[in-house]
Write a structure and sequence with these properties.
- The structure holds two protein chains of two kinds.
- Chain A is an alpha/beta fold.
- In chain A, about 30% of the residues lie in helices and about 15% in strands.
- In chain A, helix 4 crosses helix 14, helix 8 crosses helix 10 and helix 11 packs across helix 14.
- The longest helix of chain A has 25 residues.
- By secondary structure, chain B is α+β, with helices and mostly antiparallel strands.
- Chain B contains eleven helices and 18 strands.
- In chain B, strand 11 and strand 12 form a beta hairpin.
- In chain B, helix 2 packs antiparallel against helix 11 and helix 6 crosses helix 7.
- Chain B is globular.
- Chain B starts with a helix and ends in a 5-residue tail after the last strand.
- Classes of the chains: A alpha/beta, B alpha+beta.
- Chains A and B meet through strand 9 of A and helix 6 and helix 10 of B.
C-alpha cells in the first residue's frame, strides 16, 4: 500500500519560513491548532507539515519575527480545463478514506454574483441629493406582519388608532446577525454577537443549538431558532427571545439538516442542546412533523400559542428553484417574516457537493419572492429577510432595493471577529478561536473585543448606507425598499433583468 | 449657482373660496402665467371644481386620444360599460402655435347596473366609484393612444403640452367658473413632454399638481399595483393621485393621517411623542412606509370640498400660502399670489411636512 494517504502528498498550502529571521521561539507551534509545526529537538529546528495547513494565517499573523508566509502550493498538475486540481485532490481524498467530502462556510465556486451586476442611482439636478452629515437620514425598520390598512378614528382633530398591530421587531439598522448555533461557534462568539446586537438595536439569531443560560439576559435582542433537531428547544427558550424562527433549510445545504460533529459537543453545549456530550448533533433533513404546508401552519401556531402571540414567528428556507411559490405558502400559513438564504450562505459543516451545487442565487430568489407576494397582494403580511453572501453595505442597499426588509449577515460577522475564511469550521480546531469549543482555542476570542468589532462594522455600514440613500435623494429607508427604479443591470440578459425586475443601465 | 435649482422646477398655484363663490379661470391664469420662468413650455394645465353644475351628478370623463381610431374604441368601451348622459367635444380654440393636438372629448356618465362589466356584478367591492376607477384604468391600460385624464363629478381637468397661457387660450379656460382652482406650469425633465403627462393628475374627485421629483416612485408604484392601480401616464405625479384615492377613499383614512403618510414626522420626533401618538405615528410609518413620498415636492391637491398644500418632510421645494377674507391662496411663489391678490391678510411659508388644509365651509 504505497499510497495510503495520497491526498497528503499534495498540500494546498506551502508554509515559507525565513530561516534568517526565525529565532525558534515556537510561537507558531503554539498558535497552530492543526499541528502543522513540530519542534525537532535533535536538529534544533521546526519541522513543517505543509499538508496539514488549512491557510488560516494564524501563525503568520502571530509570528513575532514576521518570518512566516503562507502561500498557495505552487506545485501544479498539468493544465486541464476539466480536471482541475480541485477535482483531482477531492478524488484522492475520497479514494483515501471512502468518506463524504466535508467543508465549511458558503459556496466559493465561480457562479454569477448578481450584486456585482447591479448599479445604484444617484440624484443629479432635478432632485437634490441629501447630505446625511447635515440632514436626518433614517434606517429604522420593522420586521413582522403588517395589516393592509389602518383604522383610525378622528375626534375633535385627535386621532386614535383602532387597529391592533401584530408584534414587531424594531431594528435601528436593516442588518441582523444570522443564525450560527452555539456549538458551531463558541460561547465567546455568541456573547459578542448578543452584546453587539443589544448595543446596535438589532438582533442576533441563536441558530439551532439552543441558548446558553448566561445569554438569556440579551433576550430582547435575540431571535431563537427552532430547527428539525429541536436542539435546546423548550418553553423558557421560546419565551427568552424577541422572535422565533423556524428553520426549514439553509442556503449552504438545502435539503439536509444541520451538522455538529461530536468533537465540538462539550459539557456546556451538551446541556444547552440537551444531547449527550461528544455525540454528533445531526438534525433530520426535514422536520418530521412538517411534511407539507399545512403542517408548517400547525408548528407556526403551536409556537405562537406557546409564546402567547407576543412574538413574531418567521420561517427560514434555502433559496431554491420554487422559492416564490413556497414563500407564498409560508406567508399564508401564518409566517410573520420569511428568511431566504441564498446558495452562498455559510455553514459550520456541510457536504461539499451540496454546498457547491444546490440552491440558487439570493438576488434572483429575493426578486422573485418579493414580486410574487406583491402579485398576490400579500407582501404586507410578512417581512422578507435575506441572507447568503452579503459582503458589504452596497449589497445591503441592493437587497433592500430589490425588496428585502432586512438582511442577515453571518460570514461577514465572523470575518469581523477575525475569521480568515479557511472553510475548516467543521474540524472544531479554529485557530482564531471562533468555530471551536476547545477552551484553549476559544479563549483567543475576547468577547468584548469581538463585540466592539461587530459594532464598528455595522456602524460603518450604516454610515455608508446613509450616504448611498442620501445620494439617491431619499431620507428614509422605506422609500428604498422594493424601489427597483434605483437599480440598473449591467451584463445581464433579458430574462435575468426580467426576473430581477430592473432595467438595463442606459435605459 | 444656487438659484438655478429653483428655476429648474415647476410652478404651481391654486386657490379656494371657502364659501363656494365661483371665479372665472381668468384669475388662476394670471397667477400661473406670472411664473412663466418656472416652466419650459412643455406642459401646463388647470383643474377646477364647480364647473359643470348642469351635470353635477354625473362623472365627467375627459378623454384624450392620439388617433381617431383610439377615440372610437374608447367611446365604444365607455358606452358599453356606463350610461352616457351627454357627450361633446371639449371646446377649444385652435392655436397656430399648437399644431399637434389630440382628440379631446368629454362624456358625462353614470353607472347603470344593466351595463356593468360581467365580473363586477358579483364583486364584493362594488360601488360606483370603484367601478369608475376600474373603467379609467382599463381604458388607459388597454386602448392604445386613449387616456381618460379626468373623471370626477362637477369638476374637470384641462391640460396639455404648451405654456400656461397657451393652454388657457386653447381650452378657453376663462369660460369656466369654479370655487377651487389649481394650475401647473411644467418644466419636464424625467418624462417626455406629452399631453397625458401634463398636470393636474386626476382620479375621480381628486386632482393634484406637483412640483418636484418623487425619488420613491419605484416603490410607490409597486405598492399601488398591489391594490390594482396601473401607472400608465409615465410620470411620477400620477402615483400621488392614486395614493389619495387608495388611502382617503378606499381605506377611509383621515386626511391629516394621509398627509403624515406622505411626509411623516422623523423617528426622532416620534420617539418624543406621548405614548398614544407615538403608537399611531409608528403604525402609520410601519404600515404605509411604501406610500411615503420621498424626494423634493410641493403639492396642491383638491377635492370638491377642500384644497390642501403639502411640502416634503425637509422642504426641498417652495410653497407659500396666503389668506384674504374667504379666500386661501397657495403657490410656488408669493409673487403669483400677489398677482391676483395684491394685499393678502396673511402670508406664510408652511413648514416641512406640515399640511395646510382648507375645507369648504358650506356647499352651495
Amino acid at each position: 500500500m504505497a499510497f495510503k494517504k495520497l491526498a497528503e502528498y499534495y498540500p494546498d498550502f506551502i508554509v515559507e519560513r525565513d530561516e534568517k529571521e526565525c529565532n525558534l521561539c515556537g510561537r507558531c507551534i503554539r498558535e497552530c491548532s492543526y499541528e502543522v509545526y513540530e519542534y525537532d529537538e535533535k536538529k534544533k529546528r521546526i519541522i513543517t507539515h505543509h499538508e496539514r495547513c488549512v491557510g488560516c494565517h494564524r501563525c503568520e499573523v502571530f509570528c513575532p519575527q514576521r518570518a512566516i508566509v503562507i502561500r498557495r502550493n505552487p506545485s501544479q498538475f498539468r493544465e486541464n480545463e476539466l480536471w482541475t486540481p480541485w477535482y483531482i485532490k477531492n478524488i484522492y481524498k475520497q479514494a483515501d478514506t471512502g468518506g463524504v467530502l466535508l467543508t465549511g462556510m458558503g459556496n466559493p465556486q465561480r457562479y454569477p454574483i448578481y450584486w456585482d451586476k447591479m448599479l445604484l442611482d444617484a440624484s443629479q439636478v432635478t432632485n437634490p441629493s441629501i447630505d446625511p452629515l447635515r440632514e436626518p437620514m433614517e434606517l429604522r425598520t420593522f420586521i413582522g406582519r403588517k395589516p393592509d390598512a389602518l383604522e383610525i378614528e378622528e375626534k375633535d382633530g385627535h386621532f386614535s388608532l383602532k387597529t391592533k398591530i401584530s408584534p414587531q421587531l424594531q431594528l435601528e439598522y436593516p442588518i441582523m446577525f444570522a443564525a450560527m448555533s452555539y456549538g458551531a461557534i463558541n460561547l465567546n462568539a455568541h456573547i459578542a454577537l448578543a452584546r453587539a446586537a443589544t448595543e446596535l438595536g438589532i438582533y442576533y439569531n441563536t441558530g439551532e443549538g439552543g441558548l446558553h443560560r448566561s445569554l438569556y439576559q440579551y433576550g430582547k435582542n435575540t431571535i431563537v431558532q427552532v430547527a428539525s433537531g429541536r436542539f435546546g428547544v423548550h418553553t423558557d427558550y421560546l419565551n427568552a427571545g424577541a422572535a422565533i424562527e423556524i428553520k426549514i433549510g439553509q442556503g449552504a445545504k438545502p435539503g439536509i439538516g444541520g451538522h455538529l460533529p461530536g468533537e465540538k459537543v462539550n459539557a456546556e453545549i451538551s446541556i444547552t442542546r440537551m444531547i449527550p456530550e461528544g455525540s454528533d448533533a445531526l438534525s433530520p433533513a426535514p422536520h418530521h412533523d412538517i411534511y407539507s404546508i399545512e403542517d408548517l401552519r400547525q408548528l407556526i401556531f403551536a409556537l405562537k400559542e406557546a409564546t402567547n402571540y407576543e412574538k413574531p414567528v418567521g420561517v427560514k428556507i434555502a433559496a431554491v428553484h420554487n422559492s416564490a411559490a413556497i414563500a407564498s405558502g409560508m406567508v399564508r400559513a401564518g409566517a410573520d417574516f420569511i428568511v431566504l438564504d441564498g446558495f452562498r450562505g455559510g455553514t459550520g459543516a456541510a457536504p461539499t457537493m451540496i454546498r457547491d451545487n444546490v440552491g440558487i442565487p439570493i438576488e434572483l430568489a429575493l426578486a422573485a419572492v418579493d414580486q410574487r407576494l406583491r402579485d398576490e397582494g400579500i407582501r404586507n403580511q410578512a417581512s422578507i429577510i435575506v441572507s447568503g453572501g452579503i459582503r458589504c453595505s452596497a449589497d445591503v442597499v441592493k437587497a433592500i432595493a430589490l425588496g428585502a426588509d432586512a438582511v442577515y449577515i453571518g460570514t461577514a460577522a465572523l470575518i469581523a471577529m477575525g475569521c480568515t475564511m479557511c472553510q475548516r469550521c467543521y474540524r472544531g480546531k479554529c485557530a482564531w478561536g471562533i468555530a471551536t469549543n476547545d477552551p484553549k482555542l476559544a479563549k483567543r476570542l475576547d468577547p468584548d473585543v469581538a463585540a466592539q468589532r461587530l459594532i464598528n462594522l455595522i456602524k460603518g455600514w450604516g454610515h455608508e448606507i446613509k450616504e448611498m440613500l442620501g445620494g439617491m435623494g431619499i431620507n428614509a429607508l422605506e422609500s428604498l425598499r422594493g424601489n427597483r427604479e434605483k437599480l440598473r443591470g449591467v451584463g445581464l440578459n433579458e430574462v435575468e433583468l426580467e426576473i430581477l425586475g430592473i432595467k438595463p443601465a442606459g435605459r | 449657482m444656487w438659484w438655478q435649482k429653483d428655476i429648474a422646477g415647476c410652478g404651481i398655484a391654486g386657490f379656494i373660496h371657502k364659501k363656494g363663490k365661483l371665479f372665472s379661470g381668468e384669475v388662476i391664469r394670471k397667477a400661473i402665467v406670472s411664473m412663466e420662468e418656472r416652466g419650459n413650455g412643455l406642459g401646463a394645465g388647470f383643474a377646477a371644481y364647480g364647473i359643470y353644475p348642469q351635470y353635477k351628478d354625473q362623472y365627467a370623463l375627459h378623454v384624450m386620444c392620439t388617433s381617431k381610431k383610439a377615440l372610437e374604441e374608447a367611446e365604444k368601451f365607455i358606452k358599453d360599460h356606463v350610461e352616457v348622459v351627454h357627450q361633446e367635444e371639449i371646446p377649444t380654440t385652435p392655436l397656430k402655435s399648437l399644431p399637434d393636438v389630440p382628440y379631446l372629448w368629454r362624456y358625462f356618465v353614470q353607472v347603470n347596473y344593466e351595463k356593468l362589466e360581467g365580473t363586477w356584478k358579483a364583486r364584493a367591492d362594488f360601488d360606483e366609484d370603484n367601478y369608475i376607477v376600474w373603467l379609467v384604468m382599463e381604458v388607459n391600460k388597454t386602448i392604445e393612444g386613449a387616456y381618460i385624464f379626468s373623471s370626477g363629478k362637477d369638476m374637470g381637468t384641462f391640460k396639455g403640452v404648451g405654456t400656461p397661457a397657451q393652454m388657457a387660450d386653447f381650452y378657453r379656460i376663462e369660460e369656466y367658473e369654479g370655487y377651487i382652482w389649481i394650475a401647473h406650469n411644467r418644466f419636464p425633465t424625467n418624462t417626455p413632454g406629452w399631453w397625458g403627462g401634463a398636470h393636474p393628475f386626476t382620479l375621480l374627485d381628486w386632482s393634484i399638481v406637483h412640483n418636484g421629483e418623487i425619488s420613491s416612485y419605484g416603490i410607490n408604484k409597486r405598492y399601488l399595483e398591489m391594490f390594482g392601480y396601473v401607472c400608465t401616464l409615465l410620470t411620477d405625479t400620477e402615483v400621488v393621485a392614486y395614493l389619495l384615492d387608495l388611502l382617503l377613499r378606499r381605506q377611509k383614512l383621515p386626511l391629516r393621517a394621509v398627509c403624515s403618510i406622505f411626509a411623516p414626522p422623523l423617528w426622532d420626533e416620534i420617539d418624543w411623542m406621548p405614548e398614544d401618538e407615538k403608537r399611531l405615528y409608528t403604525a402609520l410609518r410601519m404600515v404605509y412606509g411604501s406610500a411615503l413620498l420621498n424626494g423634493p415636492f410641493a403639492i396642491l391637491f383638491a377635492s370638491h370640498n377642500r384644497l390642501v398644500g403639502l411640502n416634503d418632510r425637509i422642504k426641498l421645494r417652495p410653497l407659500v400660502v396666503a389668506t384674504k377674507d374667504e379666500m386661501v391662496f397657495m403657490a410656488s411663489e408669493e409673487s403669483a399670489i400677489r398677482e391676483i391678490c395684491p394685499f393678502p391678510d396673511k402670508v406664510w411659508a408652511p413648514k416641512a411636512g406640515e399640511p395646510v388644509v382648507v375645507e369648504l365651509e358650506a356647499t352651495t
